[in-house]
Amino acid sequence: MSPVSYSLEALKKERRYELAFEGIRWFDLMRWHDAADALEAQVGSPIISMEEPAQMKDFGVGYCKRYEQTGGFWQIPRTQIDLSNGVLTQNPGWDTEDCEYWGW
């Protein structure tokens, strides 16, 4: 039996295809610190918007910057923070008035 060698790039590619549609790709990208690059790479990609061909926009700020501000985590709903009586605090990047960009 011969030894098997593997690389991180091979593992990433295998997980991408083997676990497609399982809903865990985002967490793999976050774990490997590849999320910001993957988000930035989609800007300019061809998409269909309102049944018309278009290109993916960055909405003036950029997905990479947004990811860096929030760490990739979603905003905790204000109702849940209020119901927690101070136990929960808002995730970083979501605690300012201008945190929600149009189109996000």
Structure description:
The chain has 5 helices and 2 strands; from the N terminus they run αααββαα. Helix 3 runs antiparallel to helix 4. The model has no long low-confidence stretch (mean pLDDT 85). By secondary structure, it is mainly α. It has helices at residues 8-18, 25-31, 35-41, 63-70, 78-83; strands at residues 46-49, 52-55. The protein is extended, with a radius of gyration of 18 Å.
Question: What's a quick, concise take on this entry?
Answer:
The chain has 104 residues and is mainly alpha-helical.
Which characteristics define this entry?
104 residues, mainly alpha, two-stranded antiparallel sheet, 5 helices, 2 strands, 8% strand, extended
Layout of strands and helices, then pairs:
Layout lengths: L7 H11 L6 H7 L3 H7 L4 E4 L2 E4 L7 H8 L7 H6 L21
Antiparallel strand pairs: 1-2
Helix pairs in contact: 3-4
Specify the helix fraction band. 25-40%
| Helix/strand order, N-terminal first | HHHEEHH
Give a count of the beta strands, DSSP E runs of length 2 or more: 2
Q: Tell me the radius of gyration.
A: 18 Å
- Ends: how far apart? 52 Å
Which whole number gives the mean pLDDT? 85
Low-confidence stretches: none
**Largest beta sheet: strand ordering:** 1-2
Main beta sheet: 2 strands, antiparallel
Tell me what portion of residues adopts beta-strand conformation: 5-15%
Structural class: mainly alpha
Instruction: Report the principal-axis shape.
Output: extended
Count, helices: 5
